[in-house]
Write a structure and sequence with these properties.
Blueprint: E1 4-8, H1 9-15, H2 28-40, E2 45-49, E3 55-58, E4 63-67, H3 79-94, H4 97-112, H5 125-130, E5 133-137
Parallel strand pairs: 1-2
Antiparallel strand pairs: 2-3, 3-4, 4-5
Amino acid sequence: KPWMIKTNLDEFVEVVGKEDINPKKMDCLFVVNSMRSLIKAGISKVVVTMGSKGFFAVDQEKNWLFQVPKVDAINPIASGDTFLGGFVARYSETGDFIASLRFAAACSVANCLNLYPEIPDNIDLEELEEKIVFKPLFTD
């Protein structure tokens, strides 16, 4: 089994086999409980991104909602890939799940601020990272 799954909300609906549900109308409780089911099945970490609405993250102990700052996005293409790349880069250095998610989100937001898929040179990722807020969520 994979150690971690990272999908966007539309992909997640497919993963959990609920293609008949409109992802735009899904509630937080359903998503997080479905993520917890994957954790119970042996996946260590599950992340579901929702674009400008932030993302959910679940591990074996906790559930979180992360919120990203509002920006004037120029082009969001490849933001999911940028998120994952930022996560892997930071996690391989630190092993810190939360810090790596915050950095990943900052990378993803930065990508949106550029015409082409990449992090612009003039973006302060640390400043963006400080604007990523998160809170624990409870389910059941």
